[in-house]
Amino acid sequence: MMTFNTMRNVDTLFESAYLALLANTLVFVLGQQTETEWKKEILDLIYTTFKLTYGSAPFWKKYTKAILETPNLALVTEHPNLETKCEDLSKPLLAVFVLSRDGEITPEQTETALNSVVREFFGRAYEANTPLQDFFSVKNPEVFAKIDMSPLFSDLRAKYSKNAVTEFKNLGVYRSTLLEEILKANINLDEGIEVELERKKFDLKGAKYSLTYFEHVYKYFTGKDIDPVKYTVYLSHASSYSNSYERANANVEEDVAKILRRVKVQKFNEVIKETRTKEFEALWSDLERDYRKEFSELHIECIPITKEQLAAHCDSRGVNIDDFSWNSETFLVRNACLCPACPHYLVPDNSLSQHLQAHDYLTTALHKTARLLKQESPEKIWEDVIHGTCYDLSLPILRKVTPEIIALKDRYISLIAVSYTHLRAHETGRNLVCRLLLEKK
């Protein structure tokens, strides 16, 4: 009947259904602060009932052995490498309860098992990669305002004002590197900055289990309070791993000072993003402008390449030609820059679109227009590029014709004349048929 009441299915006999009911009842009763005759009586009934029902069950003997010998692994929800599983944290607490009543667990083993349970509680209570700093507050935030960032910004401006295009293949990498340098700057965050753990942010009151419940259970078995310092360790561990198997096998960082240092850095990162945003954005605005200017000047001439030329390039550089995605229709490479002046020329890059986003002089459908109208004069091709004759109207136009592009007319006409008319000699039979059909239209 108890199995039926738990499972709500008259056709199902689930061996652990009653075990789950007993375990959850145990956690509820142990969580009551006051010691009463009722509490004592219920605990006695739970123990007696459990021994009658599961005392000699093989699966339970395996589990209690794991609790005693490898408590961390005994808390893994399920894994093919393990014989035991822990569907719910009430299960290890029931194991400790029964082992304690049977006199088969030492005080040291009890504390070790319970500390593992509380640590796993934090791991299951919060989503993986929850920022550790979310559980802390800065006691004296005014200290951050006293940190002078101007020398750092000046150094970064001097460091990256030249050769940025050579060092960074796209603006995204450039910006993230700059931010990382700011965040890792040699600033003494320990001096005067105080952070504290805010219990209200992780107690989970109102949930099935709260930290308060586990504190009562811990004190019931050990007669001690949990050291609050351990909460910082447990939260750090929980925020670093995504599942119970990883948490069980990973070493626990016990150095609280090191953890708090990391929290301070994370809090400082927030300050950079919030209160120092204007200073950073002013720096980035100048560096981005310089990057775009240098990048655009290096990327005016984008030269198509034949398969033979690409093969020769790979041979001279010792590069595998299979690393490149060459398009036989366009004579372009999908995953490498084809601007000879670019420091990243013909370097495989799966984020080529991000690389080219910094190009202020890039014209939409330049290569497509030049390829389709190869029989026309370079001047006529240029006019069609400017007027968007070959735009794919079903797609958004990503680049507008700007005065800067118009000013480069002669250079682009020369590029079209040199870079496309000679490709006719390299056309395969298939390409030639396609071109003739297009020209016929």
Features:
441 residues; 4 strands; disordered C terminus; two-stranded antiparallel sheet; mainly alpha
Shape: elongated
- Cα-atom radius of gyration: 34 Å
Biggest beta sheet attributes: 2 strands, antiparallel
Name the beta content range: under 5%
List low-confidence stretches: 427-441
Number of alpha- plus pi-helical segments: 22
Q: Estimate percent helicity.
A: 55-70%
Q: What strand line-up does the widest sheet have? A: 1-2
Number of strands: 4
Secondary structure layout:
Elements lengths: L1 H6 L9 H14 L6 H18 L3 H12 L20 H13 L4 H19 L10 E3 L3 H4 L4 H11 L3 H4 L3 H13 L11 E3 L13 H12 L6 H10 L5 H6 L6 H19 L2 H22 L8 H11 L8 E2 L4 E2 L18 H5 L9 H7 L5 H10 L15 H4 L2 H11 L9 H12 L1
Antiparallel strand pairs: 1-2, 3-4
Describe the structure.
Helix 5 packs antiparallel against helix 6 and helix 19 crosses helix 21 (409-419). Helices cover 55% and strands 2% of the residues. The chain starts with a helix and ends with a helix. Strand 3 and strand 4 form a beta hairpin. The model is unreliable at 427-441 (pLDDT under 50). The strands form two sheets. It has a two-stranded antiparallel ribbon. The radius of gyration is 34 Å and the shape is elongated. It has 22 helices and four strands. The protein has helices spanning 2-7, 17-30, 37-54, 58-69, 90-102, 107-125, 142-145, 150-160, 164-167, 171-183, 211-222, 229-238, 244-249, 256-274, 277-298, 307-317, 352-356, 366-372, 378-387, 403-406, 409-419, 429-440; strands at 136-138, 195-197, 326-327, 332-333. The chain has 441 residues and is mostly helical.
